[in-house]
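User: Please fill in residues for this 240-position structure.
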């Protein structure tokens, strides 16, 4: 049976842990939760039965951080697809499942499908195959990846209108597209009742290419200078 965006409108009202407002869901083929988290070099936190228990641990984790974003809590639960075992990765206000630095490594020898929504309603869909980011998009008519058009027929089938003025089914469409690629149907009961093996993932330092130094001088003016990353690295090598 073909998945449909209409099958997932229930998620708009799924309030456990604010998941519907800011989530990342990741499906990983043929890896156990422990194997998946190990590929992320996660610091294991134990098992939590049910979304309420996992969400409570996530709130405790987020409250303990001075600056949110340096670390993410990922829950991983076993799920079954028509072709065998999968792992479902769950993050509340997390981004690990859409980060190519993590998923290119985690998808070695397998398939990963992930989708995301942040508190500002930005959404994202990503599909990796054996380290290769095949298709990625926020807006369905603006796609990237090594095969950006590989899912066009599937997208149309689940409810995307790819015409110039076609509506975007948003989160519901991304759920349905993920189901078509994995065979795994996510339900409220599945999220509510799963046992989540949790791990804390250290996020990589963000890449930067330059900074702007803008400070007042002694005469009431300002000193403004652009400094490139290369200049900083060269200076560090010459003046350790």
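Assistant: Residues filled in for all 240 positions:
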């Amino acid at each position: 049976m073909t998945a449909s965006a209409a099958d997932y409108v229930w998620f708009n009202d799924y309030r456990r842990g604010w998941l519907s407002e800011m989530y990342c869901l990741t499906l990983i083929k043929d890896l156990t939760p422990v194997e998946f988290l190990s590929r992320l070099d996660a610091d294991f936190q134990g098992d939590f039965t049910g979304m309420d228990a996992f969400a409570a641990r996530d709130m405790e984790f987020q409250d303990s951080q001075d600056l949110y974003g340096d670390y993410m809590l990922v829950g991983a639960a076993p799920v079954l697809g028509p072709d065998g075992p999968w792992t479902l990765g769950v993050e509340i206000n997390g981004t690990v499942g859409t980060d190519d630095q993590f998923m290119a490594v985690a998808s070695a020898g397998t398939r990963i499908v992930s989708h995301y929504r942040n508190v500002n309603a930005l959404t994202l869909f990503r599909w990796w195959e054996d380290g290769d980011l095949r298709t990625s998009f926020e807006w369905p008519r603006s796609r990237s990846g090594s095969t950006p058009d590989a899912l066009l027929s599937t997208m149309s089938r689940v409810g995307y209108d790819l015409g110039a003025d076609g509506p975007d089914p948003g989160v519901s469409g991304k759920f349905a597209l993920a189901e078509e690629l994995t065979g795994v149907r996510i339900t409220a009961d599945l999220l509510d009742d799963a046992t989540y093996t949790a791990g804390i993932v250290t996020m990589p330092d963000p890449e930067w290419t330059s900074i702007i130094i803008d400070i007042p001088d002694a005469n009431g003016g300002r000193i403004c200078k652009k400094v490139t990353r290369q200049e900083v690295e060269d200076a560090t090598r010459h003046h350790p």
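For context: The chain has two domains: 5-202, 208-240.
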